[in-house]
Amino acid sequence: MNEIEERLDEIRERGLYRKLRCVSGPQGPRVLLDGRPVLLLCSNNYLGLADHPRVREAAAEAAMRYGAGSGASRLISGNMTIHRRLEEQLARFKGAEACLLFGSGFLANAGVVSALAREGDVVFSDALNHASIVDGCRLSRAETFVYDHCDVDHLEWGLRQAEGRGALIVTDGVFSMDGDTAPLPEIVELAQRHDARVMVDEAHGTGCVGPGGRGLVAEYGLEDEVDVIVGTLGKALGSYGAYVLCDKPMSKYLINTARTLIFSTALSPPAVAAAIAALELLREQPRRVEKLRRNAAVLREALAESGLPVEPGETPIVPLIVGDADAAMAASERALERGVFAQAIRPPTVPAGTSRLRLAVMASHTKSELREAGRVLAAAIPASARESVALGEAGATLGRSGVFDVLADAA
Ligand SMILES: Cc1ncc(COP(=O)(O)O)c(C=O)c1O
User: Fold this and answer.
1) Could you tell me which of 374, 373, 376, 381 has the C-alpha nearest to residue 356?
2) How far apart are CA 137 and CA 124, in angstroms?
3) Which of 21, 123, 262, 326 has the least CB density, counted as fewest CB within 10 Å?
4) Residue 108 lies in a domain
5) What is the pLDDT of residues 24-48, one digit of tens each?
6) What spacing in Å lies between the alpha carbon of 145 and ligand 1's midpoint?
7) What is the Cα–Cα distance from 127 to 140, expressed in whole angstroms?
8) In angstroms, what is the span from residue 53 Cα to ligand 1's centroid?
């Protein structure tokens, strides 16, 4: 057996083997998955815009007008009028001074964190932040302090240890695998007291929370207090790519230092045009965000009525914690046999012992589909596998040591 096969076997033995499934046709509430019709309950197409006719038409038209690709990085010849148009519209929508498009959310997070945090600085990162933030910390030459999930006391303790050093606090707004939200007012207050910058990842906030879907920062009215907001175009906005909102000097700094912007091809015109159309729809039809909120409440209610442990919340991300990786996979397969696609999420995406079905609601689901999903999931998850791990409890084991550079634990 060659070494790669041995490594694969080791992954299988740990119950962590992954394989790709294939969806035929567009990303709607119902899809054909590997040829089988299923209710899709794990897509980030929250507002149902990825398959909206206006969004599709905009992408097709842009392909005819501007071509399929941008041909180069933005600093060479890939920066096109259509990029500028989307940046202006996003900045206006979010009330920011400047906006900068990146190739994806992963590239934006990795690029911004590594550009902002320099040798001698400290990055303060929530234990449950997305992998792209973790990798941004690794790429930077700064030290990293992983604070317990949403624990502002732990964060403050760390800030006090690092007094006098350059500091960047970075957090997901809506946490991608738990669906809970960061205590932004407290974080901003601590940042001001300790002279730290704040960066918020709104990947799952934009289109889902805040007034008109403007995100968690807008919900708290903290637009002027947060230094950098990262948002993605590939989730509620139904396209692909990402953006950074900040002030003008920061935008110029990132153009000069963010390696994932400098050394990567600019977004393709169809992806940009699709995002412009999606943003227009979001502005014209804020009821979509309301519908998403109502649907999230319907699913939570249906799950609770079926006896499943659900944490209260308002975001469209609903985790059903199972615990063991194999048990989560088995539950996902049983749900699939009954026509519901709810992907199992295992380490390293979530901490060991907290494998789960991560459910994601869409505005385009019907109430009866969500109620049906509640019944199917109750049948798929046996009572013995319903582990009500309090949200964030698992994260609390990460970085408890309160020392710098404990990122390896959080990977
Ligand atoms: C919180 C968070 N940030 C960033 C990303 C990366 O975004 P993208 O898929 O655009 O690379 C994701 C999702 O994958 C995410 O959940």
Assistant:
1) 381
2) 9
3) 21
4) yes
5) 989 999 999 999 999 999 999 999 9
6) 21
7) 17
8) 24
